[in-house]
Each structure stands twice: as C-alpha cells, then as structure tokens.
C-alpha cells in the first residue's frame, strides 16, 4: 500500500536560478540559468543563459548569454512578481566559479545514483540550494534537499 505524502519546499529568495543536466549525448553537462526565481525558466516565460561544460574538468566549453530583460522576484506577501533586470540584462547569470561549483555538485550527485540526472538549483548569497534530483529519461523524481556552501575564491 502506497500512502500519500505532502512535500513542502522552502521558498528561496534566489538571486539566480536554473537547471543543471549532468550529461548530453556527448558526455558534457549543461546549465540553463537566469536571474531571479526559477519559475521564469520552468514556465518558459524567460529565455535563460545556456552553458555547456566539460564534466571531467568542470570548465566552460560554451556560454550563450540570453537577453534577460525581466526576472521574477519574491514579493512581501510570499508570492512572486515580474521586475526589470536593468543594466545587467545582457550579463552572464553565472560566473566561471558558479559553473565549476554546480558541475562539482552534479558530478557528486550523478556518482551517488549511477546515471545521468538533472537538478533544479537556486543561488542566494554564498549558498547553492538543490531542490531535487531526477533521472532524466522520464522516471519518477527522487527528492534530495541540500544547501551547499560556496567557498569564495580570493
């Protein structure tokens, strides 16, 4: 007998959100990222930056910057609202260290389950929030929560 369950996730007031895919058909990783809440990405409302990275070295292979005119942010009542990004609209959402940190995390998670995965993430300050991990080809979601502290690069 399978009993129903309720899953509640914390609303993270993220500065940057996205999805990391551990493997493409060539063995590289991919990140889609934008400013603000991830709902703008998963709903298809906004076009994210697209980053291709090497899973072995965690180095960026290609970075395609989207014109991110708007972002979703949390409002005072716990909802979300659309606001202009401003002068950073054509800036990279992630720097090289962010990409390296996300690549390291996805590699650890992929190694823990033994197959390609994707994870949704949010970055706020020096913390990366991982909301879940899931097997890519249409299998049930395996829930994983975690906060990864980033070590500043001097």
Please give a structural write-up.
The protein has 154 residues and is mainly beta. It has helices spanning 39-42, 96-113; strands spanning 16-21, 29-35, 49-53, 60-64, 70-74, 80-84, 117-124, 127-135, 141-142, 146-149. The chain is globular. It starts with 15 loop residues before the first strand and ends in a 5-residue tail after the last strand.
Outline the fold blueprint.
Layout: E1 16-21, E2 29-35, H1 39-42, E3 49-53, E4 60-64, E5 70-74, E6 80-84, H2 96-113, E7 117-124, E8 127-135, E9 141-142, E10 146-149
Antiparallel strand pairs: 1-2, 1-7, 2-3, 3-4, 5-6, 7-8, 8-9, 8-10
Q: Could you write a compact summary of the structure shown?
A:
With 154 residues, the chain is mainly β. The chain has helices at residues 39-42, 96-113; strands spanning 16-21, 29-35, 49-53, 60-64, 70-74, 80-84, 117-124, 127-135, 141-142, 146-149. It contains 2 helices and 10 strands, in the order E-E-H-E-E-E-E-H-E-E-E-E.
